[in-house]
Amino acid sequence: MHKHKRPGRRGDRITDAERLHRRNGIEADYTIGPVHEAQRRADERFGLDRLPDLVEPELARKFGRQRAKLEALLDADDLDVDAIEREAKRMLNAYEVLTRRAEELGAPEANPDIWELPWRDGVLAFCRRMSDMPAYMRDNPGATLIGAEELGRILDAQPMLIEAQAPVSRCCRRQKAL
Predict the structure, then answer these.
(1) How far apart are CA 30 and CA 26, in angstroms?
(2) Is residue 4 a contact partner of residue 52, using CB atoms and an 8 Å limit?
(3) d(CA 153, CA 150)
């Protein structure tokens, strides 16, 4: 289908933890929890932020308008939880409508051998099999793609990256050594 121009997840108000520090922030966070889950399911099934790309532009614009309404409420200094709840329900409905339409159009699902993460202003993808890389790059020209072997070389060259970010893995290593 059509590739829509929209910002990446950077600065995404739906997943913004800063909201928790504002009046009614925790209540608002629990209110939009189901939207987080719907977004996660859509990303897992169709690829990171791809669901709107899989349907007609007019339907994608409606989805974008609904998302903008919810994000505007989440940007407020004083969070109106009732309004957030109303728009969150509408956002859930929007995810359901887009998912159904993508299914009707026979939209391709994400490749389970390619993991995508929000990165900078786009997507960082990890590709398990080299054979999947050319098709992924053809379909996602703006993404940054790293193969499993390349990732292994990066991590071997910079073991401190893992050591600094993974205290659980250090804990598990110590337990195995006992």
Answers:
(1) 6
(2) yes
(3) 5
Supply the pLDDT for residue 34. 96
DSSP labels, 117-140? EEETTEEEEEES-GGGHHHHHHH-
Query: Tokens at residue 32, please?
Result: 């939009």
CA distance 55 to 135: 21
Output 164 or 152, whichever has higher pLDDT: 152
Where residue 165 falls (left for φ over 0; alpha for ψ -120 to 50; beta otherwise) is alpha
Closest CA to 140 of 168, 108, 104: 108
Region 18-27: what's the mean pLDDT?
73
Of the candidates 119, 124, 127, 117, which has an alpha carbon nearest to the alpha carbon of residue 149?
127
Strand partners of residue 127: 114, 147
Q: Which of 171, 24, 142 is nearest to 84 (CA)?
A: 24
What would the pLDDT profile of 102-139 be if each residue is shown by its tens digit?
999 999 898 888 888 888 888 899 998 888 889 888 98
**CA dist list (Å): 176 to 2, 108, 141:** 50, 42, 42
Strand partners, 126: 115, 146
The answer to whether residues 77 and 24 touch, using CB atoms and an 8 Å cutoff, is: no
Task: Name the token pair of 137.
Answer: 């790059």
| Beta-bridge mates of residue 113 | none
